[in-house]
Amino acid sequence: MGESIASVRIPDSALTREATELVRDVASPLLFDHSRRVFLFGALRGREEGLRFDPELLYVGAMFHDLGLTERFRRTDQRFEIDGADEARRFLHAHGITGEPADRVWTAVALHTTPEIPLHMAPEVALVTRGVELDVLGIGYHAIADEQRAAVVAAHPRPDFKNRILAAFTDGIKDRPETTFGNVKADVLAHFSPGFVRGDFVEVIKNSDWPE
Minimal CA–CA distance to 45: which of 118, 121, 113, 144? Predict the structure, then answer.
């Protein structure tokens, strides 16, 4: 029988074992533990909301959602969320999972920092975002039981997590500041990257090539 944390069973298959090892190899312990918590919190929120979801797809989405912050998968020409989404889809294709299921995981990873929209999509998409929101922002903190939350954190601790995750965000996006235009990561660079100038949607419209 596979591992169980806070009454959530970790999917135990060749797919999920390989996903676990890949993330363990390329990500810091901070990001590895965070990604596991995202799966666990997402699954708990799904159970609380009565959603039916594919545990393996949710697991891959959760584990890959921050791969774009790692040195191995980090690019400088697109949003970090797309880095992880692209790698998740490649990983699933290599394991024979193609079409809509792979695209569903791509969407879950790509949209995990986009407020509200993922919550109206497929359960796996919504629950990656639910897990991220709970672990990073505290949204839904009281939607699960105290003992469940404690069990998740006991298995995957989060010492000084708020400061350390902000540092990881900064390090992962500082070389592509233009990719934060119109999204929440602009706030990170505004706080922690000296000289960063936030893009302005109104100015983009006013300064476009259109004469009026």
Answer: 144
What pairs with residue 45 in β-bridges?
A: none
Q: Could you tell me whether strands 8-9 and 4-5 are parallel, antiparallel, or unpaired per DSSP bridges?
A: antiparallel
Q: What is the pLDDT of residues 98-125, one digit of tens each?
A: 999 999 999 999 999 999 999 999 999 9
Cα distance between residue 21 and residue 5, in whole Å = 18
One-letter amino acid of 17: R
- Token pair recorded at residue 146: 């105290």
Asked whether 60 and 16 are in contact (CB, 8 A), the reply is: yes
The number of beta carbons lying within 10 Å of the beta carbon of residue 38 is 29
Evaluate if pTM is beyond 0.85: yes
| Per-residue model confidence as pLDDT tens digits over 2-58 | 799 999 999 999 999 999 999 999 999 999 999 999 999 999 999 999 999 999 999
Contacts of 175 (CB under 8 A, 6+ apart): 76
User: Quick count: other Cβ atoms within 10 Å of Cβ 77?
Assistant: 9
Q: Can you read off the two tokens belonging to residue 197? A: 């100038």
Helix (H, G, I), strand (E, B) or coil at 102: helix
Q: Helix, strand, coil proportions of the chain in percent (round to 5)?
A: 65, 0, 35
The sign of the dihedral angle between the CA atoms of 117, 102, 166, 31 is positive
- Which one, of 179, 198, 54, lies nearest residue 110 by Cα? 179
